[in-house]
């Protein structure tokens, strides 16, 4: 660790600062489809670190609960700091330092929604301040295109870890794609956006004039690549409850 952590992220670190020791922070991205247990894993990692006396910062972008916390489908939750579009993630760490708290690790849930700039800030925290950064998120959107945050993480993370916990397509193959579905038809385009999970979806539109009629009966279904491509939602498609966004 650097002697004075408040200097670690300054624009011009003191000459020789790096010689004080190797920065040991690592940037890790755990990714998988919706409902694969990423949030549960995030909470478990937080718990494991905290139990060893390490101090962490838990961040979330667009949590499914609508409140700043990480919630998991198995019923556990932890308060988290909501990251806004323009938040400089380094500032969140500096605020902790200003209060005399050190930061050993940072956990980010829904990391696919981070901007590429924010992911770069996480890399800086790992490299310059020796902070371990664990990002959790979905790799691809409903069009099977990488989310910006996920794309940047694939480019620069030290470690990429697929999370594949019991999320299967209706056919039994691993589910890898989050299909956006309306009236049992897969939507192939539309505003980029997004998703919190299969029960509560957040649609964030760049177009301000989206009519209410367009907001209803959208749901997400995890599919294997074959059935994502073919659009076959399986025999139970008609039985799925329709999510209404009002
Ligand atoms: Zn399938």
From TrEMBL:
Gene3D superfamilies linked to this entry: P-loop containing nucleotide triphosphate hydrolases
Record flagged with keyword Nucleotide-binding: yes
The protein's enzyme class: transferase
Taxonomy, superkingdom: Bacteria
Enzymatic reactions: thymidine + ATP = dTMP + ADP + H(+)
Sequence ranges of Low complexity compositional bias: 11-23
InterPro entries: P-loop_NTPase, Thymidine_kinase
Regions crossing the membrane: none
Residues covered by region (Disordered): 1-23
Catalytic activity, EC: 2.7.1.21
GO molecular function: thymidine kinase activity
Keywords (A to Z) from UniProt: ATP-binding, DNA synthesis, Kinase, Nucleotide-binding, Transferase
Record-linked SUPFAM superfamilies: P-loop containing nucleoside triphosphate hydrolases
Family to which this protein belongs: Belongs to the thymidine kinase family.
Name of protein: Thymidine kinase
Organism of derivation: Amycolatopsis rubida
């Amino acid at each position: 660790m650097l002697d004075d952590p408040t200097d670690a992220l300054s624009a011009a670190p003191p000459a020789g600062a790096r010689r004080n020791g190797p920065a040991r922070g690592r940037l890790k991205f755990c990714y998988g489809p919706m409902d694969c247990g990423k949030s549960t894993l995030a909470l478990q990692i937080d718990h494991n670190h905290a139990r060893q006396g390490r101090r962490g910062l838990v961040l979330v972008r667009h949590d499914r609960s609508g409140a700043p916390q990480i919630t998991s489908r198995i019923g556990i939750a932890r308060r988290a700091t909501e990251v806004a579009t323009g938040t400089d993630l380094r500032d969140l760490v500096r605020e902790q330092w200003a209060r005399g708290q050190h930061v050993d690790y940072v956990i980010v849930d829904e990391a696919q929604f981070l901007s590429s700039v924010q992911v770069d800030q996480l890399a800086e925290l790992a490299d310059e301040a020796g902070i371990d950064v664990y990002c959790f998120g979905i790799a691809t959107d409903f069009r099977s295109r990488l989310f910006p945050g996920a794309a940047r993480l694939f480019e620069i993370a030290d470690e990429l870890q697929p999370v594949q916990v019991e999320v299967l397509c209706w056919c039994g193959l691993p589910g890898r794609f989050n299909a956006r579905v309306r009236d049992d038809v897969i939507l192939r385009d539309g505003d980029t956006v997004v998703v919190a999970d299969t029960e509560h979806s957040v649609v964030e539109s760049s177009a301000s004039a989206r009519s209410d009629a367009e907001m209803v009966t959208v749901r997400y279904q995890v599919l294997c690549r074959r059935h994502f491509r073919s659009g076959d939602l399986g025999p139970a498609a008609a039985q799925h409850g329709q999510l209404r966004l009002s």
